[in-house]
Amino acid sequence: MSSLKIAIQKSGRLNEKSVELLKNCGLTFENYKSSLISSVSNFPLEILFLRDDDIPEYVQDGIADLGIVGENVISETGVNVHFLQRLGFGKCTLKIAIPNESELVQINDLEGRAIATSYPNILKKYLSDNQINATIRTISGSVEISPGLGLSDAICDIVSTGGTLKSNGLKPFADVMSSEAILIGKNGIEKEEAVKELMQRIQSVLKAKE
Ligand code: ATP
Ligand code: ZN
């Protein structure tokens, strides 16, 4: 029987918890930091270590059968994949934030303003749901410095503790989406016996944590 492939983040905020979850499922594997792939010795599974942004498409295209990635990344890439299980870690909220001294009061005040983000698709949908016309400035990192540079009136970014906002003179303005790590699969993979077995193990691990 050929192995299933699961894609997890190579390094970053979801890596450690993803590895821990798989180990708690009784899977034995080497957590090679330098290699892209690791075989599980006691289950028909291979682990691919990837950038989180690449995971949804790898799963959609079937290069990986399963993946662990933040809901925010799934929504932003707009892929067609199967949601198998919420995993309870990597919790965060995508928020719009504004400078402390901003005169904006309600979300409609964003009309005609510029908002910097690394999540243009999610933001676009949020603005259109709220019938707001604003300019979206897509930047790939350090979004929170953009208002200070005069590049935007607001930002839309991931917030977990709010510390980064604070240290950049910003305050939360509106919640756009909440997110946590999710186990996704390519469509139809949920019918595979090995996937059912793995899901059962994951659910027991999550239950034991409650
Ligand atoms: P990669 O190198 O894999 O592209 P990255 O820098 O894009 O990594 P990380 O910062 O490691 O991503 O975040 C991975 C995921 O962790 C996010 O997409 C989000 O779902 C979740 N997350 C939880 N808390 C936070 C936070 N405070 N800031 C950013 N992401 C967070
Ligand atoms: Zn990323």
Automatic annotation (TrEMBL):
The keyword S-adenosyl-L-methionine is annotated on this UniProt entry: no
Cofactor names: Mg(2+)
Keywords of the record: Amino-acid biosynthesis, ATP-binding, Cytoplasm, Glycosyltransferase, Histidine biosynthesis, Magnesium, Metal-binding, Nucleotide-binding, Transferase
Pathway involvement of the protein, from the record: Amino-acid biosynthesis; L-histidine biosynthesis; L-histidine from 5-phospho-alpha-D-ribose 1-diphosphate: step 1/9
Top-rank taxon: Bacteria
Domain ATP phosphoribosyltransferase catalytic: 51-203
EC numbers: 2.4.2.17
Catalytically driven reaction(s): 1-(5-phospho-beta-D-ribosyl)-ATP + diphosphate = 5-phospho-alpha-D-ribose 1-diphosphate + ATP
Chief place of localization: cytoplasm
Any one GO molecular-function label of the UniProt entry: ATP phosphoribosyltransferase activity
Role this protein plays: Catalyzes the condensation of ATP and 5-phosphoribose 1-diphosphate to form N'-(5'-phosphoribosyl)-ATP (PR-ATP). Has a crucial role in the pathway because the rate of histidine biosynthesis seems to be controlled primarily by regulation of HisG enzymatic activity.
Name this protein carries in UniProt: ATP phosphoribosyltransferase
Record organism: Olivibacter jilunii
Gene label: hisG
